[in-house]
User: Fold this.
Amino acid sequence: MSKLSSLERRTALTLAAVISLRLFGLFLILPVFSVYARAMPDATPWLIGLALGVYGIGQMCLQIPLGLLSDRIGRKPVITLGLLVFALGGVVAAFSHTLTGIVAGRALQGMGAVAGAGTALAADLTSEAHRSKVMGIIGVSIGVSFLLALILGPPLEAVAGLPGLFGFTSLLAVAAIAMLWWRVPTPTHHGAPAAASWRELASMFLDRRMLVLNGSVFFLHALLTASFVGLPILLTDVMRIPVAHHWMLYLPVMTIAALGMGAMLPRMKDMRRASHVVVGCVCVLGLALAGMALAETHVIVLGAAAALFFGAFNLLEAALPSLVSRLAPATLRGAAMGAYSSSQFFGAFIGGAVGGLALGHLGLRGVFGCAAAMTLLWLPLVVRGTRRMAAGGFASAA
Assistant:
């Protein structure tokens, strides 16, 4: 098996750091927000869920336009603009004294929609043979940032409060900009402006294999955001675990999940095997969420269910972008990753909204029960799309 070149290794590690810094800032909020947001003067379950997921609206609307723009003017200028907007949103949220103000700040953060351009830049700087490795490195780094955020979020919140966490996200975005220009190489070429017609764009967006992948990341992040509407409250109110000690559950859970992801990720290199792994992950996610709904006060049951959930989540989070980049034409890669990221963040918005509504009307069990029910909508999509994904390459829906 050939090794990554020095350029590919540098690209993978540096871009992984750039992407992970931004996502680390977003993830820091997850383990504490729903607990402490309840104390805000205008707090309702719906607003709590909305604040967690509203950034997905801006992401959904702007990922494709910014992905197309990155195909034309370059990835790095677009990523820089997005990170500046993201940093501004963090400042707005940090200085807000109401949940409504935080919703506004989170919405502005969402307008820094650069995930598609970032993954497209990684694809531009790597060969086809090594693209899965590079995407895997980035995916693993995202998993590590997620783990660190779950562990560090509660103690950082205890020191600086929610405003401090939001301010920290802005500082991380600025650090990511510096690293982007200092260490990430600039591609020597990218798709010509006239290379992609609207017909080609429509053909790519409607390709059924792309629809399977975009639909999968939609459901994946809907489940994640919905789960974190209820999980911190479940640990605090039902399990009676102080927020500052939540890391004692998250650390072993995420370690087990990371080991499971590492064992399964090599199977995702082959498109046929990858499609079957995706189907298996959907089933595992549904069972894990059902386990969370039934855990009650049993910490071991909750821990086992959470390990299954995050193991399947991390595996799909690492593998799906690579599958998209392998299916999309080179001249449309930025747009393809933009569409993928739009689906991802729209799922986060829907998950936050569903989780907030379920918490208000059905209670904690309802949050996890509704999330588990969403896998029943997801499963037919991936089962029917397995053969088309296994075919590889790019073809129109026609």
